[in-house]
Write a structure and sequence with these properties.
Number of strands: 4
Largest sheet: 2 strands, antiparallel
Distance between the termini: 29 Å
Structural class: mainly alpha
Shape: globular
Radius of gyration: 17 Å
Number of helices: 11
Helix content: 40-55%
Order of helices and strands: HHHHHHHHEEEHHEH
């Protein structure tokens, strides 16, 4: 169909498949929900299974998605390989596409609850998804970037927010000026949650959020943006 073809050109094969195959998407989430209610939570040995294709940081993000979905990471990988087309499972793009798959499912599930934007873990995880997107595979360079010379404006911590976050997988992540997100990662992950961004205007939003930081998104700015959406009840 022309609409599906247009979406594939615009959003990429994986996202377009998920958006166009509504029955597959709903079925996947339905099974995730049943697993969550009918089965005991996966133990750490199962849920924290490392995916060899992924970087250590991407693995930590996938493990946190696994806990939200109450599906072991190994089972998520099996579903990805079983239910998505071969075109998104090619070696060069496998890690990034699998990370997107887990991120989309987890964001969809997490955003169904009340007041999710006020949840510190949700805001941290959604940002970490973008960081992991930029270095998803085992061969990726470490997630360190030189601080940009133009970012001399320090983000103020008005509410005493912690600059450290300990994930449910006991992985401590330091948030500093060297860990920032670029436009492509933001555009791929943020629209998966309608409250955060819209696929049509996501690039304009990124420009607005990064106008004073050389077009790299710092966590404190992203966090403050999500807090403002929650504070003024701007989420759809």
């Amino acid at each position: 169909m022309p609409e599906i073809t247009e979406n594939k050109n615009k959003f990429g094969t994986l996202e377009s498949f998920i958006r166009s195959q509504h029955s597959t998407w709903k079925s996947l989430l339905s099974r995730a929900s049943r697993n969550s209610s009918d089965a005991d939570p996966p133990n750490d040995d199962t849920s924290n299974h490392l995916i060899p294709n992924l970087s250590s940081f991407a693995n930590s993000v996938v493990a946190r998605c696994s806990k939200i979905l109450q599906i072991p990471t190994q089972e998520l990988q099996h579903r990805f390989e079983r239910e998505l087309p071969e075109s998104v499972k090619q070696p060069l793009s496998y890690a990034r596409n699998f990370l997107e798959f887990c991120s989309y499912l987890a964001l969809f599930q997490a955003s169904r609850g009340p007041d999710y934007l006020s949840n510190n873990e949700f805001r941290r995880l959604s940002y970490d998804m973008m960081l992991a997107w930029e270095a998803p595979d085992a061969e990726s360079e470490p997630l360190t970037k030189e601080a940009t010379s133009c970012s001399n404006q320090q983000a103020e911590d008005e509410d005493g927010w912690s600059l450290f976050y300990s994930s449910s997988t006991n992985t401590a992540v330091q948030v500093d000026e060297e860990k920032t997100v670029g436009p492509e990662a933001f555009a791929r992950i943020a629209p998966a949650c309608a409250a955060i961004a819209d696929i049509i205007t996501v690039h304009n939003l990124f420009e607005a959020l990064t106008s004073s930081s050389c077009h790299r998104l710092h966590f404190l700015i992203y966090d403050k943006y999500l807090r403002s959406l929650d504070k003024y009840d701007l989420a759809p």
